[in-house]
Specification:
This protein starts with a strand and ends with a helix. The protein folds into 2 domains: about 230 residues, Rossmann fold, CATH 3.40.50.300; about 240 residues, P-loop containing nucleotide triphosphate hydrolases (Rossmann fold, 3-Layer(aba) Sandwich). It has about 500 residues and is of the alpha/beta class. The longest helix is centred in the middle third of the chain and has 16 residues. It has 17 helices and 20 strands. About 35% of the residues lie in helices and about 25% in strands. It binds adenosine-5'-triphosphate and magnesium ion.
Amino acid sequence: MLDLRNITKVCPNGVVANDNVSMHVKKGTIHAIVGENGAGKSTIMRIAYGFYNADSGEILFEGKEVSIRNPNDAIALGIGMVHQHFMLVDTMTATENIILGAETGSAANLDLDKANADILALSNELRLGVDPKALIEDLSVGQQQRVELLKALYRNAELLILDEPTAVLTPQEVEEFFGILRRMKEQGKTIIIITHKLEEVLAISDEVTVMRGGKVVGNVKTSETTAKDLARMIVGRDVLLRVEKTDALPGSAALEVKDLSVGGKHGVAVDGVSFDVRSGEIVGVAGIEGNGQTELIEVLAGLAAASSGKVYFEGKDITNLSPRRIKELGVAHIPEDRHKRGLLLNSDLAENSILGVHYRAPAATGAGFLDNSAIQKRAKEILENFDVRPPIVDRPAKSLSGGNQQKLIIGREFQLEPKLLLVSQPTRGVDIGAIEFIHRKLIALRDAGCAVLLVSAELEEVTALADRLLVIRKGKIVGEVDPKVTSTEEIGMLMTGGN
Ligand SMILES: Nc1ncnc2c1ncn2[C@@H]1O[C@H](COP(=O)(O)OP(=O)(O)OP(=O)(O)O)[C@@H](O)[C@H]1O
Ligand SMILES: [Mg+2]
């Protein structure tokens, strides 16, 4: 279906994103691409989709050499792509987003009723359950992704490229999503999927291509490989696929939450929760996404207001203080949405590494002026300690690959040596080597006496890291369990309310 031959792409900053990459994707198969953050996975697929142009090399589609200069060329051939970060307009309906740019004829004879009907038929055929007339902002992330899929299918894509489609999905949504991919494969479609999750590669793909440092380093049939082998090919060494830690030695309560409630878009998001986090322990929050964990963390970080209840940090009432005041007390926050809350994408890595603490030492002098050499020094430390690649301080944050952006945020917050860390989805989008690294850093922070409140949609991650686990459902804490003795089935039952 797709044959990439000797593709090379050098970025404006001189980074060789793709170095003589060749890849052979068979028609009617699901082909996975794996590799470290910055390995060049998104770049090679953006070249196949015409989003970037290669410096050299050839592309063959269904056996014929083709020239794909832009996405329109790709779409005309029957290639569709769903990007790592969605590109939908929030205030428009699903149908409006889908037909955007694909309208035939003038605006006057744009037939919205027909488009709605066509899209509903497509959605039903694959059992996507998308309401064509729903506004994007009212849809869950999982549903938004299905809209992206429909957008490609509506343009008659025969080859679908999916860049980390499961990174933002809950485990249940991943199951359903894989069902959809299998149905598409039965219809004869070809699918390329980029993912960091090896169990997903093993569950869904027929073949796997492994990339490292811009090159293809391996190509295997999924039935002939294991997670361990893939991990070794990806990182170039053996990787610990589980978390190693000793028992926690908790001290006094750093964070105390008393009967806290928070309003949400649709009623009460957090409904009278009480718990504490002691220094030297990791308290996990497990729950299906959308059950109040986002709002809970935002209130604790000062980014949203509590409607009632109290939050104490080291015995001091910090309810509804500003994010800056809370941060100054020694509370760090690693947000779930790194584009919205974590980074200034157009600013360079140096500026991003002092975000939130730019007004005080060491970033600023006593007189309130920015101390550039101190900022550069701090940025370099963070980039080095957290293995952000490439470690060039004056590059914009948007030039980093997705996983490296995450490592930068984590490094910045850890560098503050917090007494309390609020962290959501710490390893979303990062490669397996970096996951191992981030897990170790979290444990080390705990062992240094930091109190950690961890929210993760990955049940495996939260049970492996947490010393105590709170289960949240519909804004309420419905149970506290010891992750060492409680099975994931039991936790799952609490999360879903037994359904
Ligand atoms: N627009 C750009 N400007 C400069 N450098 C870029 C640009 N796009 C990508 N790069 C660089 O090219 C390399 C490959 O990036 P790419 O996004 O393809 O990695 P990836 O394998 O998709 O990583 P991830 O798993 O983190 O998404 C990286 O070193 C990245 O910094
Ligand atoms: Mg990528």
